[in-house]
Amino acid sequence: MADFGGGDNEAFRADVRAWLEANYPPELKNRDAVVHPEATWGGRQFAGNTTDPQLIWMRKVAEKGWTAPTWPKAYGGGGLSKDEARIVEQEISRGHYRAPLASFGLWMLGPVLLEYATEAQKQEHLPKIVRGEIRWCQGYSEPGAGSDLASLATKCEDKGDHWLINGSKIWTSYANRADWCFCLVRTDATKKHEGVSFILIDMTSPGIETRPIQLISGESPFCETFFTDVKVPKGNLVGQVNGGWEIAKRLLQYERQNISAGFGGGGSAGGSAGDLGQMAKDYVGADETGAVDDADLRARITRNKMDFQSFYLTLNRVAAETRTSNGPSAATSIIKYAAASLAQERAELMVELMGNQGLGWEGEGFSPSEIVATRGWLRTKANSIEGGTSEINLNVVSKRVLGLPDPK
Ligand SMILES: Cc1cc2nc3c(=O)[nH]c(=O)nc-3n(C[C@H](O)[C@H](O)[C@H](O)COP(=O)(O)OP(=O)(O)OC[C@H]3O[C@@H](n4cnc5c(N)ncnc54)[C@H](O)[C@@H]3O)c2cc1C
Question: Quick one: DSSP state of residue 107?
Answer without folding.
Answer: I
